[in-house]
Design a protein that fits this description.
Chain lengths: 163, 345
Amino acid sequence: MDVGVSDFEAWAESRLPGLLRFAYLVTGSQHAAEDAVQAALTRVCERWARVRRADDPDAYVRRMVVNEHVSGWRRAGRREVAVAEVRSRSVDPVALVDEADAVWRVCSTLPRQQRAAVVLRFYEDLEYAEIAALLGCSETTVRSHVHRALTALRAALTTQEDR
Amino acid sequence: MSDDLELLVRESLRARADRVDTTAPLVGRARRAVRRRRGVRAGLAAVALVVAVGGAGVVLDGRDRTGVAPAPSPSPSRAVDPVEPDLWRTEQWQGLVVDVPVDWAWGPAPQRMSGGLRVCGRTPSRPYVGRPVMMSDVCGQELDPPAPTSPYVWLGVDLPTGTVDLGGGYVQETVAVAGTTLTVATDDDELRASILASAGDGGVCEPALAQVPVAGPVESDAATVCAYRRSGSAYALVYGAGLEATNAARLVEEYDASPAFFPGRSCDVGSADDPLEVVLVDVPGRRFVVEMEVLGCPFVHGGPGLKAQRRLTPALARPWVVGGLGTTLFGPDGGLGGTLDDYVR
């Protein structure tokens, strides 16, 4: 097997679980996550000779996953409503309404770039400058995204407590 | 409280992520997809070669590339590292998106007219992205064009798919993608392959509009500019790009500082219902709609209703006339002696 091919496959296989988890949080759907990651890996494979020499190939792929999600929405011409794909078999509506689900519900309603900023900040633990570079926007915009998301979450949790 | 909230978000996201199925064989699928793409392109090139050798290639003859050949440039662009996003930019045409080196210019590409393919405007003397639009009322057809001296990309040109040897080391390859065509000509195989590999559908703009949308509040937080030209009874995307935050803010400032404009005040609004060119400028939470028509009044709508209507001025146009948009649209002058770029200068 060509050294380059085995090199790409080894790199991609080691990154795949993390990429899928990241893509799921960004897209809200197992199916959309797999589509986005596959599209990103296909492009990386085509450019592997250059990607492997980059300072941070992982950041490059994460950006492609985020952009692929945006492009995918445009292609479909519709807004995707995230639905929790992984549920326990016995669904207790009352038990599901807990703080963790409130976070996911709020994230599901966020605009795409804002949601990506939240995931990159609180799941990938990136700095604001790194997130800005990855999303192609200013650091101020990233901070605004995160601030608005936390504000929405705080309001959702407060409403929940009042019930 | 804020730290507790952030901790909650982290734990929630992590718990959700831990439940994701990560067993899908995506790496293998990606490898197979790449092999299929390379096989298709090799097949097309082989077909083109067979037809050219057979002498049936009216359009596979380099001489049918048409257009005005670029003037000699200092040095052709070399392949840049595509993993550096700042070194590439994304071009859009209808449903097609493709990445090109960020320093490439914009220019005209051949259009199908009576008598064949013609280029309307001056072809840049350096690497460029061409669109089949009239950038000038002077249209030329080179009967025996010389080999190019710098690379180019053409979007949506009426050429059959295939590969053509242009001479001078240059190879021109046309592929069908996203319902249109993409043509790439370079003397650098790696650069050509990188550009072709970046092509796909999607983008920040809708490929077409059935009708002119209404301006006003939008849910999106994006900042984009999407330019359309009337095509039959609908509008086709001719240019799309992101908009810098400073430009978006400046547009809002200029709009807020402009007086409302009502029809009938020294302005012919006969074609207001069916403008030739429409530009949608989205800033976070809001959409502006610009309408331009030959010999008509150009408007900027900031919302529904006449009170949200402004007359377009160079100051109101400058924030969103970015990149190659200015040379792609006629603008308020309707192509009579200039493009939108001339209007905003």
